[in-house]
Task: structure prediction
Amino acid sequence: MSTSVLFDAPGPRTRARHRAYSVVAIVAVAALVVALVLFLNAKGELSYSLWEPFLTPDFVRVLLVDGLLKTLEMAFSSVVLAVVFGALFGVGKLSDHAWVRWPCLLVVEFFRAVPVLLLMIFIFFFWGITHGDSGRYWTVVAALTLYNGAVLAEVFRAGVLALPKGQSEAAYAIGLRKTQVMTSVLLPQAVKIMLPAIISQCVVALKDTSLGMYVVAPGLTRVGKQIYTQFNNQLQTAIVLAALYVIVNLLLTLVATWLQRRLVGEQKPLDVGMTALVNTGENTGGAAGGI
Amino acid sequence: MNEVFSNFDLVLRAFWLTVQIAALSGVVSLVLGTVLVAMRIGPIGVLRQFATTYVTLVRNTPLLVVFIFIFIAAPNVGWFVHTPFLLKGVIAVSLYTSTFVCEALRSGINAVPVGQAEAARAIGMTFSQNLAHVVLPQAFRASVPPLGSTMIAMTKNTSVAAVFGLMEATGRMRFFTNRHADDAVGILIVFAVGYIVIVELISLASYGLERRWRAAR
Amino acid sequence: MRMTRIKATAVATLLALGLAACGNAGSDDDSGPDVKVSDNAAASFPDGSRMKALADSGTINIGVKFDQPGIGFKGATDDMPQGFDPEIGKILAASLGIEPDKIKWTETISANREPFLQKGQVDLVIASYSITDERRQVVGQAGPYYVTGQQLLVKKDSDISSIDDVKGKEVCSVTGSTSLDQIEAKGATPRGFDTYSECVDQVLNGTVDAMTTDGAILLGYAAEHPDDLKVAVDPFSEERYGVGYGKDHPEMCQWIVDTIKKAQDDGDWAKAFESTLGKSGVETPEPPTMDACPAS
Result:
């Protein structure tokens, strides 16, 4: 960060001061870590028996297969379905006909404004509850599809609008019809810009699958809960769960960054307004996305 | 449906709790996020590393797992035992949201023209003066739209508190649907409208701020 | 920088997998007392009855709780749930000539017990399922095979001594349970969590003032922590656990009642209790007298 515009390249006195700060900061961070470890050790939280489940083949298998794999499955199916949902409603929002545009707009707005957990509870009691184990699985997938689909609908719309106007004009000029312009000219190009956004939506979906715990759906958090109910190792389980989520999400982020570089170049990622009421359609630099 | 309307005080109290969690977490996470972003762009390497690690770890952890840390794991080692539930909820939501606030602010800082910071340096301002008087005030303005989205997401995220003993709106909705599953649609509409009102209010407020402050530049 | 991070992750993963071979947690499980499975059971039931059909098919689908230690709990690596309810299920299945490992266990939560029976997703529900008039309108409930009542579990030094003391106190129970609704009606601040064991932890570490549910479960936890916890206040409700069955098969009621009666008489019921709820030191109670089946 020597090139930062926020501060001058430090002179000898400042460098000395920064070094002093750094030492203090290192000592503080190290002291914090040491204190934490000592504290946990004193509380017996580092004892082997509490970590043992995560080194036992049976539990590792359950954690990875019944937990992580199911979570990935749910996240993946919901993102695939959400892309379909998003494409339909995103294009619907661009329609020339008000009777198509408005319902699409309302549906998208509704699912964006409502918490995913609320949707999940509704779908669970409305449908999932009477459909056994698969009912819970699909409850989570359905709720995540509706929410992420609504977000992606916005992304699709923004992606299509972000294309140069000449593209559709040229397409119309050679006699393509509206649907053809959309499906063979605009969407293929828009998808390219949207891919990174779709993948970062995967991170969101993956994190949100954890909410399935509230409707007894399968997945990583649920397996974690079973483990800490059995062994009373809440802290250890929470650490393992967090580590697994972080690793998978970082891998996804790497893929998204790579795709961004390959397909879009170094320009800003696509971003969308927060609600229809005040959709400025401006590109605001999508750092806040993916929450 | 009748059940919901004849117990409407329960619904209102639940949304009041949602608003409380959201408002408190909003303030706390804005403060925390600002501290994080200052560390992250500052000249001290260790703090930069620390902030970056914190943001990367927490951002990629599901909020539900953050709640497990605060509500289930921490009390077991003697932390947050006598902390009121509301406060624990605020802590969990804020720890999580502050990382997104940090990212939103960083994007705002990137939007501040380089000349501004350079001019500040030219007249001899230090890093903290530069940040406090020149960069951050403008960065906050540029960050209003992404911060607005973050605050909206945070408000919706307060629903996770329902899983951990806080009877806020989503917890109350489950209470109703649990007893009257055949009325699920009606109950959903009542609670969804509540959330939509809150979300649109935040959205309008942030749009208003954005317009007012944009004119000031 | 990024490459080193990936390498580090890969190394850590490999290390974890390598180490994975040495852990040996949770391998000391036992599957409860043996239940004698009757031979040639199908012949003893009248043609066209649901029991005959089940005995012929050789399998039965029973809905139980998976998250309540003592009552019905299934650990992450277990094949079969354990607890008093599954034991009752095994007794019933045995009378149909169905081996315990042929039973299909389905997880039910409080909210889906009636829908499961109404839609025929399970044959029986044995899931701390209190008999109420409302429920008997829509499903069949035979029993009670166990009677308990709602009480409070508090710290030894707690000043809660009567149910009126809970006003304004924080009381934990399982989300969606009637216990939680009832304690809210008594003026307490309800704290709904996912499982009873989470509530016990909250009481132990002082986060909440009390937890509430059926006394049987609470006694078990109190016996686990005799120096820290006690059961306070007399039962302020009566919960009579019944076996749920589909309303389309009224003939099942008499079979359930007869089978459980027999188990009560020959000691299987007591054995089931001792190996589950009784493990923590609760005395085995007198088996309850069961309701007569509705005339069909």
In short: Chain A touches chain C through 34 residues (CB under 8 Å). Chain A is about 75% helix and 0% strand.
